[in-house]
């Protein structure tokens, strides 16, 4: 009966399938061919056809590479692995590596086959098993087979040793606790002459050092041996087996340099042992080919990461400088990125390549251009500010729109930090606003207004420059806003022609009003710009004498504007003219000099390239006479609210509002004083203002020489892996001052970034926050952020504090509030 059954025809070969698929003219035609062949392969699998199983699985793998589903061949791969034929095993293991991973339980069925093949008499079968285990072995498989791998790592066969070393790397990644099993086998690995074994051995040692501090300390004794191997490589003659573009085994050299970098990090002795060989590699490596550049780049990274000599670091930076002249864009990009990382530690050495870096701003590649821009800003200092700003302003003129915002911000910050004169500062900011006004940050306008206000001697010059800048061009809205504000403030100086810095222009009052009215009706003007212009026109009613009636008319027209903001301003200004005309000149007088205050207390961070140190802001003594409101109330008046207080007591009080919007948010509606509210003060008694800054007279230099210790520390906050601890110090000379040092630690597996700690205390205390040591709280409690708080407690009341924590963790912005009431009595009594 069986003789009458027609056998299926032999399946086509893999080569014929590839040729057939390549003849397909459309995707649909190719898909039809694949589906037809898959059906034939399925039928063959069902027939348990052992003769052609290997050929069918090979074709299935090709289809898998083209992106078609091939999961139905997984069990056939296991059958091929169990076969005794080498050709079957080879395709079976290849299929297992491509079609299986540890997410499928099927892979566990391979464990016994792999174990048998690891003990096979043929080295090539053993090699297949090692490759497969090193590619897709799960943690369960690695635990079961680690002993076999370790045995092969000790064999004398170099073919198996190199594969066993790479398999051991995979085992360690999957099951780190098995690392010590391979430690005895690593002793003789570096004595091997075979470059393949050497290469894989260095990879294995690198993996072990990166995963275990104990292993790192253990393997530091191998530094002289690694140095000797590297020296032999660079000094050896031509070897056709290992030569790549005239360099002996560059792959092994790069791996050894990477391992030396790990071993030399934060270790003086190891770094000292490798200084000479690094200098030899840096000077003897040929740079005409990309192979040499790869070795040099790895050498530079190693020099920068270990505790190397200063001369060696300069040599490394000069190599990066040569990279900047290379025609290959990738090499130029790598050089700029590396220089950006080292500019803070080796600033002067990088400065020598400033002209080459600036030339990279003209590169056509946008990635290189961005890195060059970031590095150029990092190189700006007080000595080169004029030249660098000239280049960066030229770049701002010609760069693509996506660069303009970052470039403008960088110029603002650099000009604020290093401006040689106020006139230069104002000219530079105005040039940015003229060139890229629509790309600047939101705070550019108020910052420039503050700068102009504080430069009293430059008022006439500035208002004249701004007037000329906006004549007929309202496209740059931030520039128009600043110009409108200045014309409103200093319009009388513009009309009088008192400018001494440049030739004054003759402008009439009507011409000034024409400009502001054209801003109001321009289609390019935003609602905010129109608000600036209307307010400027109103201010000019007290600066100008002949055009007051025209101003009244303009203001009354906008009383019926469809823009609600503009309408409200106009109605209020109209009321000033009609009901409160006697107060108008006082209300619209010139703005006083503005003081720049920081949110966390009187400490301004002054950062010079590579160094950050706190500098106390200039403070003024409090006025001797009584004042009806504090300095903070002046600011609240401007904002349109005079009834904000940081503490809302149970009974109404008439305490003045305190400064610092963030403290208001922190304190919310909780009365932290713990005492009953005071009775309302009589209306006739003026209240004396607080000094302009908290802890006036206290230096912001770190801590005291005469401190009282022994105060127990407390845990102020512990939640979601973040822990905040307070430690305390008291000054013997000024016992009213408590210095609190906070330490923030993170026990989770990911870093917490952009960490900000804020604090608020009741009104009877005064608080100063100094700058933190970092903004990143490292994971696994591997480091802490420290920050110092100084609290002045003249009345020796019980200390209470509200804290606010903000940070980013696992891609999410986190924020939390907490109240700290468990301060030890020694910290405040």
Automatic annotation (TrEMBL):
Please state where this protein is localized.
Cytoplasm, Perinuclear region; Cytoplasmic vesicle, Clathrin-coated vesicle membrane; Golgi apparatus; Membrane, Coated pit
State the UniProt keywords alphabetically. Coated pit, Cytoplasm, Cytoplasmic vesicle, Golgi apparatus, Membrane, Protein transport, Transport
Q: Which InterPro entries match?
A: Adaptor_Complx_Large_Subunit (IPR050840), AP1_complex_gsu (IPR017107), ARM-like (IPR011989), ARM-type_fold (IPR016024), Clathrin/coatomer_adapt-like_N (IPR002553), Clathrin_a/b/g-adaptin_app_Ig (IPR008152), Clathrin_app_Ig-like_sf (IPR013041), GAE_dom (IPR008153)
The biological process GO terms on file are: intracellular protein transport; vesicle-mediated transport
Primary subcellular site in the record, as a coarse category: cytoplasm
- SUPFAM superfamilies registered for this protein in UniProt: ARM repeat, Clathrin adaptor appendage domain
Looking up Pfam families in the UniProt record yields: Adaptin_N, Alpha_adaptinC2
Q: How does it sit in the membrane?
A: Peripheral membrane protein
Positions the record marks as coiled coil are none
* Gene3D superfamilies referenced in this protein's UniProt entry, alphabetically: 2.60.40.1230, Leucine-rich Repeat Variant
Job of this protein = Subunit of clathrin-associated adaptor protein complex 1 that plays a role in protein sorting in the late-Golgi/trans-Golgi network (TGN) and/or endosomes. The AP complexes mediate both the recruitment of clathrin to membranes and the recognition of sorting signals within the cytosolic tails of transmembrane cargo molecules.
**Which family would the database say this protein is a member of?**
Belongs to the adaptor complexes large subunit family.
- The identity of this protein, by name, is AP-1 complex subunit gamma
Q: Which organism is it from?
A: Zalophus californianus (California sealion)
**Gene designation:** AP1G1
């Amino acid at each position: 009966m069986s003789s009458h059954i027609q056998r299926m025809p032999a399946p086509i070969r893999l080569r014929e399938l590839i040729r057939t698929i390549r003849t397909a003219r459309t995707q649909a035609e190719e898909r039809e061919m694949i589906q037809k062949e898959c059906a034939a392969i399925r039928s063959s699998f069902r027939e348990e056809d052992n003769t052609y199983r290997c050929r069918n699985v090979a074709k299935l793998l090709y289809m898998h590479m083209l992106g078609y589903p091939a999961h139905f061949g997984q069990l056939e791969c296991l059958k091929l692995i169990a076969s005794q034929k080498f050709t079957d095993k080879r395709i079976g293991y290849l299929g297992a590596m491509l079609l299986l991973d540890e997410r499928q339980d099927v892979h566990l069925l391979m464990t016994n086959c792999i174990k048998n093949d690891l003990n096979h008499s043929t080295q090539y079968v053993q090699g297949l098993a090692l490759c497969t285990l090193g590619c897709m072995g799960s943690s369960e498989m690695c635990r079961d087979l680690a002993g076999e791998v370790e045995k092969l790592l000790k064999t004398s066969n170099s073919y198996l040793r190199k594969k066993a070393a790479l398999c051991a790397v995979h085992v360690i990644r999957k099951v780190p606790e098995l690392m010590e099993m391979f430690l005895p086998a690593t002793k003789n690995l570096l004595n091997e002459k075979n470059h393949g074994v050497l290469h894989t051995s260095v990879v294995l040692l690198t993996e072990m050092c990166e995963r275990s501090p104990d292993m790192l300390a253990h393997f530091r004794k191998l530094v002289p041996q690694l140095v000797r191997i590297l020296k032999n490589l660079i000094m050896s003659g031509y070897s056709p087996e290992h030569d790549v573009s005239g360099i002996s085994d560059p792959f092994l050299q790069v791996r050894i340099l990477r391992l030396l970098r790990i071993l030399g990090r934060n270790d003086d002795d190891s770094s000292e042992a490798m200084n000479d060989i690094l200098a030899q590699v840096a000077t003897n490596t040929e740079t005409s080919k990309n192979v040499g550049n790869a070795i040099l780049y790895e050498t530079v990274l190693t020099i920068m990461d270990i505790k190397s000599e200063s001369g060696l670091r300069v040599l490394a930076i000069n190599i990066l400088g040569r990279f900047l002249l290379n025609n290959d864009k990738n090499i130029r990009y790598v050089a700029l990125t590396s220089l950006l990382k080292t500019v803070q530690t080796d600033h002067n050495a990088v400065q020598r390549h400033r002209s080459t870096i600036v030339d990279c701003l003209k590169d056509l590649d946008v990635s290189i251009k961005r890195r060059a821009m970031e590095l150029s800003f990092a190189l700006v200092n007080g000595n080169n500010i004029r030249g660098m700003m000239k280049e960066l302003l030229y770049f701002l003129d010609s760069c693509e729109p996506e660069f303009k915002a970052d470039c403008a911000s960088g110029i603002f910050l650099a000009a604020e930090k290093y401006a040689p004169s106020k006139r230069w500062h104002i000219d530079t900011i105005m040039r940015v606003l003229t060139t890229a006004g629509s790309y600047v940050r939101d705070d550019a306008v108020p910052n420039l207004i503050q700068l102009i206000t504080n430069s009293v001697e430059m008022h006439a010059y500035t208002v004249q420059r701004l007037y000329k800048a906006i004549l007929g061009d309202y496209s740059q809205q931030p520039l128009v806003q600043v110009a409108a504000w200045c014309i409103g403030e200093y319009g009388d100086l513009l009309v009088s022609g008192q400018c001494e810095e440049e030739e004054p222009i003759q402008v009439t009052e009507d011409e000034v009003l024409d400009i502001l009215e054209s801003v109001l009706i321009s289609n390019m003007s935003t609602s905010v710009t129109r608000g600036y212009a209307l307010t400027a026109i109103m201010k000019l009613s007290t600066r100008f004498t002949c055009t007051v009636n025209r101003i009244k008319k303009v203001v009354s027209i906008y009383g019926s504007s469809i823009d609600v903001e503009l309408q409200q301003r106009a109605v209020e200004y109209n009321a000033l003219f009609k009901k409160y005309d006697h107060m108008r000149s006082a209300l619209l007088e010139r703005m006083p000099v503005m003081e720049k205050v920081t949110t966390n207390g009187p400490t301004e961070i002054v950062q010079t390239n590579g160094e950050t140190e706190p500098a106390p802001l200039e403070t003024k003594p409090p006025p001797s006479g009584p004042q009806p409101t504090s300095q903070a109330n002046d600011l609240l008046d401007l904002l349109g609210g005079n009834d904000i207080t940081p503490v809302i007591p149970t009974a109404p009080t008439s305490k003045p509002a305190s400064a610092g919007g963030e403290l208001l948010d922190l304190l919310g509606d909780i009365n932290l004083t713990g005492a009953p509210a005071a009775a309302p003060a009589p209306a006739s008694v003026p209240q004396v203002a607080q000094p302009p800054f908290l802890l006036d007279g206290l230096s912001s230099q770190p801590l005291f020489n005469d401190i009282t210790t022994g105060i127990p520390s407390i845990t102020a906050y512990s939640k979601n892996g973040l822990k905040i601890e307070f430690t305390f110090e008291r000054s013997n000379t000024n016992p009213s001052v408590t210095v609190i040092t906070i330490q923030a630690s993170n026990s989770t597996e990911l870093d917490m970034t952009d960490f900000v700690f804020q604090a608020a205390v009741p009104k009877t205390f005064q608080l100063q926050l100094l700058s933190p040591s970092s903004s990143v709280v490292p994971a696994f409690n591997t480091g802490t952020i420290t920050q110092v708080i100084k609290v002045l407690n003249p009345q020796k009341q019980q200390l209470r504090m509200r804290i606010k924590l903000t940070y980013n963790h696992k891609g999410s912005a986190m924020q939390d509030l907490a109240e700290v009431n468990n301060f030890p009595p020694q910290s405040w009594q």
